């Protein structure tokens, strides 16, 4: 009980700081496009197998192309952010412009934002960039990710305005132009490609008075192609102190594909976003690129390598797979597969 009280106190102490990030001091130019496509490069992308992408494929082909906007969503306690994980993605070959928040240059996003606002931002990014954004949420950021999926599914409201992330203001419209079809579509109804949540539990939803998510937290609607829920063993904050059981698992309530991954017991709630160093180590980098979900090598961390490597490898596999898939879809929609420009 003493540990639980300590955690509650920490959350209450650090919640007021959630609006301040190191990125607030950076203020880079407000750019949001990355890469470009031409028929030659498009043909190289189309030749790739999204489920077996090598480091060469990423560095020599995909990194020269447009990439989905990635929103790494922090937890409530601001002493731990998703910045290290975002830097890991960049070091592995992901375009930095698509990881940084274009408003303030930060590498991660505040999880205290309104879920409808986030849904409006997602629609804006997709309309402007042509690729569906990807969300990676830690703790409360995982809750916000799931809540966003319910917003897109129309669980809470039928109309959501488009939000401009550069001005942080809503636009006077409730629909966006689909970059693949050119047709106007409402924000509600948009289906994303991939998202994940790690260390997100119902206990903290009660403590933080997020009652509206208690019955929705483990239910993934059909507003996404694939969702991965990562669970921490013996973790007090996410409510798995006695272990991970079936009640902790996410489940599909629509057409989404949902995976549940229980991470090695060495992984901790506050330490799981720390991944940046993995990209700098030759051995761990090679292991991450060899990793495939469901392989025996994914059951536990390999000897002598960082305890968070399974989480980093699993998410990176899904990111580059959906990056390639959506990019191939965009190429076909633009006619670049037929040599048109």
Structure description:
The protein has 341 residues and is of the alpha/beta class. It has a single domain (2-338), classed as Alpha/Beta hydrolase fold, catalytic domain (Rossmann fold, 3-Layer(aba) Sandwich), CATH 3.40.50.1820. It has helices at 2-14, 39-46, 55-60, 83-91, 115-129, 140-152, 202-207, 282-290, 309-333; strands spanning 70-73, 134-138, 163-164, 169-170, 175-177, 184-186, 192-198, 219-220, 224-231, 251-252, 257-262. It has a 5-stranded parallel beta sheet with strand order 1-2-7-9-11, with helices on both faces. Strands 3-4 form a two-stranded antiparallel sheet.
Question: How would you sum up this structure in a few lines?
Answer:
This protein is 30% helix and 13% strand. It has helices at residues 2-14, 39-46, 55-60, 83-91, 115-129, 140-152, 202-207, 282-290, 309-333, and strands spanning 70-73, 134-138, 163-164, 169-170, 175-177, 184-186, 192-198, 219-220, 224-231, 251-252, 257-262.
Based on the model shown, name its key terms:
341 residues; alpha/beta; Rossmann fold; five-stranded parallel beta sheet; two-stranded antiparallel sheet; globular
CATH class: Alpha Beta
Number of DSSP helices? 9
Indicate the CATH architecture: 3-Layer(aba) Sandwich
Give a short account of the largest sheet.
Answer: 5 strands, parallel
Q: What portion of the residues fall into strands of 2 or more residues?
A: 5-15%
Q: What class, by secondary structure content? A: alpha/beta
* CATH-assigned fold name: Rossmann fold
- What is the topology, as strand order, of the major beta sheet? 1-2-7-9-11
Shape: globular
The secondary-structure element order is HHHEHHEHEEEEEHEEEEHH
**CATH superfamily membership:** Alpha/Beta hydrolase fold, catalytic domain
Radius of gyration: 19 Å
Instruction: Report how far the terminal alpha carbons are from each other.
Output: 64 Å
């Amino acid at each position: 009980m003493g540990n639980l009280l300590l955690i509650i106190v920490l959350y209450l102490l650090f919640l007021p700081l959630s609006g301040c990030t190191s990125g607030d001091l950076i203020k880079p130019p407000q750019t949001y496009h990355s890469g470009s496509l031409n028929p030659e490069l498009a043909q190289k992308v189309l030749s790739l197998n999204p489920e077996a992408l090598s480091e060469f494929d990423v560095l020599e082909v995909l990194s020269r192309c447009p990439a989905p906007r990635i929103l790494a969503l922090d937890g409530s306690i601001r002493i731990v952010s998703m910045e290290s994980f975002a830097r890991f993605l960049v070091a592995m070959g992901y375009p930095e412009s698509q990881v940084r928040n274009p408003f303030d240059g930060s590498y991660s996003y505040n999880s205290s934002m309104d879920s409808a606002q986030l849904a409006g931002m997602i629609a804006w990014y997709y309309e402007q960039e042509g690729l569906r954004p990807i969300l990676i949420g830690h703790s409360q950021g995982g809750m916000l990710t799931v809540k966003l999926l319910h917003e897109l599914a129309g669980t809470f409201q039928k109309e959501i305005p488009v939000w401009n992330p550069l001005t942080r203001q809503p636009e006077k419209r409730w629909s966006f132009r689909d970059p693949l079809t050119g047709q106007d579509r409402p924000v509600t109804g948009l289906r994303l490609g991939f998202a994940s949540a790690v260390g997100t539990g119902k206990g903290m939803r009660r403590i933080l008075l997020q009652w509206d998510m208690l019955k929705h937290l483990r239910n993934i609607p059909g507003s996404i192609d694939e969702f991965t829920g990562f669970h921490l063993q013996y973790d007090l904050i996410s409510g798995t102190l006695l272990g991970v059981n079936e009640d902790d698992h996410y489940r599909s309530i629509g057409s989404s594909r949902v995976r549940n991954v229980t991470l090695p017991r060495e992984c901790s709630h506050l330490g799981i976003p720390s991944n940046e160093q993995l990209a700098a180590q030759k051995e761990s980098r090679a292991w991450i690129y060899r990793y495939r979900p469901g392989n025996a090598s994914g059951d536990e961390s390999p000897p002598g390598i960082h305890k968070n490597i399974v989480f980093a490898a699993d998410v990176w596999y899904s990111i580059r797979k959906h990056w390639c898939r959506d990019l191939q879809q965009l190429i076909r929609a633009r006619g670049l597969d037929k040599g048109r420009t």
